[in-house]
Automatic annotation (TrEMBL):
<feature type="domain" description="Methyltransferase type 11">
    <location>
        <begin position="43"/>
        <end position="131"/>
    </location>
</feature>
<dbReference type="GO" id="GO:0032259">
    <property type="term" value="P:methylation"/>
</dbReference>
<dbReference type="InterPro" id="IPR013216">
    <property type="entry name" value="Methyltransf_11"/>
</dbReference>
<dbReference type="InterPro" id="IPR029063">
    <property type="entry name" value="SAM-dependent_MTases_sf"/>
</dbReference>
<dbReference type="GO" id="GO:0008757">
    <property type="term" value="F:S-adenosylmethionine-dependent methyltransferase activity"/>
</dbReference>
<protein>
    <submittedName>
        <fullName>Class I SAM-dependent methyltransferase</fullName>
    </submittedName>
</protein>
<keyword id="KW-0489">Methyltransferase</keyword>
<keyword id="KW-0808">Transferase</keyword>
<dbReference type="Pfam" id="PF08241">
    <property type="entry name" value="Methyltransf_11"/>
</dbReference>
Length: 194
């Protein structure tokens, strides 16, 4: 399965709308973690079906290479566009923040760097970039994951492209639970120099 396929978009939709996730509002702590980063008007790169767009500030935009995922996000009222639509129409330095949640692990290191460089031109000087990648159990849960990416890997990526990273952290539980809890994540906030 490719992350560009209609099947992948449908997989995301089914995972997001399962009854117990809606009843328990399991995204609440993750949304809290995202909001507390203070990203401002955000470009959500690899937005999928838009689960994070629900809590990002007004004016935020999701972009994804999967047109089916973008269609689902739009049907839920989110501002989402395909990569081709976005790259051909958006002025540089127009966003306060960039979100890459569950994106970098889907590609090799060179492709991840290339993707980040491609979208950094849309980030204002002094803007923030927030990364989220799954830990071991979450990484193993998706056959489209290509490269296990740790917080230290994210720090290295940031330094390579000229971002100033903070200290990576494990969320929502300590790092040792990443091998058993599917939703434990590596998180890193970085800043573009002003």
């Amino acid at each position: 399965m490719s992350t560009e396929s209609a099947d992948y978009a449908e997989r995301l939709r089914k995972k997001q709308t399962v009854w117990w996730k809606r009843a328990l509002h399991v995204q609440a702590p993750y949304h809290w973690n995202l909001r507390r980063q203070g990203l401002g008007r955000t470009l959500d790169v690899g937005c999928g079906i838009g689960r994070n767009l629900a809590v990002l500030p007004a004016g935020s935009v999701g972009v994804d290479h999967n047109s089916e995922s973008v269609a689902i996000a739009r049907s839920m009222g989110y501002d989402a566009v395909t990569s081709k639509e976005f790259l051909g129409s958006t002025p540089p330095a127009s966003f306060d923040g960039i979100l890459l949640a569950h994106v970098i692990e889907h590609m090799d290191a060179d492709s991840g760097e290339k993707l980040l460089r491609e979208y950094l031109k849309f980030l204002k000087p002094g803007g923030k970039v927030f990364f989220v990648c799954p830990q071991e159990r979450g990484y193993d849960s998706d056959p489209t994951h290509e490269r296990f990416t740790t917080g230290d890997d994210l720090v290295e990526l940031c330094r390579t492209v000229g971002l100033v990273p903070q200290v990576p952290f494990s969320f929502p539980f300590p790092r040792k639970l990443g091998k058993i809890f599917i939703y434990n994540e590596f998180c890193l906030l970085a800043r573009r120099p002003a």
